[in-house]
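Mods, move this if it's the wrong board.
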Amino acid sequence: MTASMSAMATDAGRPAYARKAPMPPTAADLRLIEKAALVSGANVWQTRPIPRLGVPQIWLSDGPHGIRKQPGDADHLGLGGSEPAVCFPPAATIANSWDEELAAEIGIALGQEATARGVHVLLGPGLNIKRNPRGGRNFEYLSEDPELAGRLAAAYVRGIQSQGVAATPKHFAANNQELRRLVSDSVIDERTLRELYLTAFEIVVTEAAPWALMSSYNLVNGTYAHQNRHLLTDILREEWGFDGAVISDWGGADGPAASIAAGGTLEMPSPGFESAREIVRAIQTGRLDEAHLDARVNELLTLVRRVTAEARPMPGNHTEAHHRLARRAAAESAVLLRNESTILPLAPGARVALIGAFAEHPRYQGAGSSIVNPTRLTTLLSSIADAGLELVAYAPGFALDGRPDAALTAAAGRAAATADVAVVALGLPDADESEGIDRPHLHLPAAQVDALRAVAATGTPVVVVLSGGGPIETPWLHLTTALVHGYLGGQAGAEAIWDVLTGTVEPGGRLAETMPVSAADDPTSSGYPAQGRTAEYREGLFARYRFHTSAGVAPAFPFGFGLGYTRFAYADLTVDVDGATFTVTNVGAAAGADVPQLYVRRTGSSAVYRPDRELKGWSKIRVAPGERRTVTVPFGARTFRFFDVRSGRWEIEQGEYEVLVGPNSADLPLSATIHVAGTVPAGTPDPALAVYARGDVRDVPDAAFRALLGRDLPDDGWAVPLFRVNTPIDRLGQSPSRLVRFAFGFLERRKRRADAAAHPDLETQFIYYAPFRTLHKMTSATRPVTDAVLEVANGRVFRGLRHLVGALASGRRIERITRDAFERSAGIERIRRTRPPRRRRRPE
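Not the wrong board. Structure tokens:
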């Protein structure tokens, strides 16, 4: 008997509590080919296993508001079908609740849904700052404010991971437009990056310890996010202490060796073995230190160990309970924006005319990778019978594709004339909100406004219910008696709206983002989305409400705004070094929820420009009629700080600060001043940054933005030669080859049809704006195939086609060789199909 066998026999004879658990494998146990292959996916949704070391394959899934697990043909854009799962309201909706406990409950439910479907890693929550109200993916994100987004995201993460499932906050970082998202370079100064666009991620990492994090598609100050050492190592790992795995957005990794060195752990989806070969070559030639690869492998092995632990809760059937939670969440997140003559809540038995095609065909989630196949879907039309109201008429009012229809408009008016109240369901079309495209505007289709005008002309009170993942311009507000913005309500959103309209649930929602009068009021509007290679963050810290309050531009509805069915009075503010204390009294006749908000502004002379006010805390409270509640909002490390680019540290400027308290960012009746000792003395402002000191940043000169950046402005044009691996495909119209331009015309026509379609064509959008590298990053092709295509695009057509033929043939061969080498090393058994032996003919 060998020594190792003797040790095994001895250990086997020990009682269970005395046996040594086998040590989990580390990078030291893996061979180079295994390590290089492990840090990219096996397919669209799974990692690679190492059977010889007992390392299992794990499953990743989209799931910011529900599980999108695709059992068959998989894709990353939400094009194919997925298993049914409860569709919760998206992040933009839940953020309006300002309720961390509710966010944690939803996180727990998402973890349970994932476990029941064999999913180990949930790709969410999304917490990018909503820099502009027209961001196409804003429905997936929480807020325009980092404090609100970070705290709610942390609650989601704690809930998800309590079920043994890894949460993956995304997209890190400065991912704030969809147009050319795989090639756009976010040009941003360090202070703005830290204070506005990284703080939410800092909160979720330091307060909830996520096991994974997803990097963004874009470049940040000239370097792709997944290979940006400043982001992934200097800040995320060394400063914040993150110990999890950084996963690329699907197709978002550029150079595999550079990603490994910078701190990018896992490249998704599978790039075949192209990245593995590149990593091996980089190590063998000394371009990559194997210690970096070992660090990334250990991060991935830690992730696998965490999500396959025996302590992972067992799945159960929670579908009905989760549907009820989705309904409650949607109701508590709905925002009452107008309630003239206190028409809401509706009286029991009220005779209702229900108008609007969305009442029958609801908008309940956005389009793209987050799309969920709901276990059931309620509508306003199908659920009104359970709301204690009498439906006297239903009229679609308008066509969903936005085409004018005089007959539908007239029918809406006739239906409204028969009722005590008209409930009109309006909202954004599918084509206006989707991953991959930014919103062209903030207004409703004209056909919907025509229907509303026809209903209002009857004199019947009008209650408008809005559906959409973000702000909507409301020049038609005077036509309404009441307005509820339900955002996107998930599968139970319709039932939730009736709960709100009838008073079963008091509307406790408060806007987590500003609703401007016009899209043009936003300081980024003239350059959003950026059309060139760079997206310049010239507005600095003055995004959304920070701009409106600083520049004196009144919005339609301010950040934090929302009405209820009762009224609250604020009084007795006191402030000390620990925080602010005040009282809130329910002075109405009904119980209600309120969200007292605390903002801070700097007063007196200061060397540090700041927005007029910034959210630093809040409390979600529920108060009975006549009840008086004492509320304390504590101060913390983030309350008074700013990022000092000179010292490279967070500092607090000595001086006077005003603490403001009230129901929203534009209504702050309580104020008190506090002196803060600080870590640096107050100084004098930099005259080069005078435009930022004023706060009106609608037209920032080059010199001021250059001073803010501390460097020259980068070139916004595309590199020469014309086409490189990261040039977007939409540039093919400028190819020197007439043949290439002719062929590109087919894609151009397909793109125009996609733009005019009622539903977003994500596949066309993705192909049109994707860089050439997606050929070898998201298909079975190899890098030489992409290089050959680039030769064709750059005018060397026949030479490129000759190289393309050779690259396709050699690529299949080298992929097979690498795959076989990895599988032999890892101990993966392949089922190889063999042809049955031929029957030999007997001689006649």
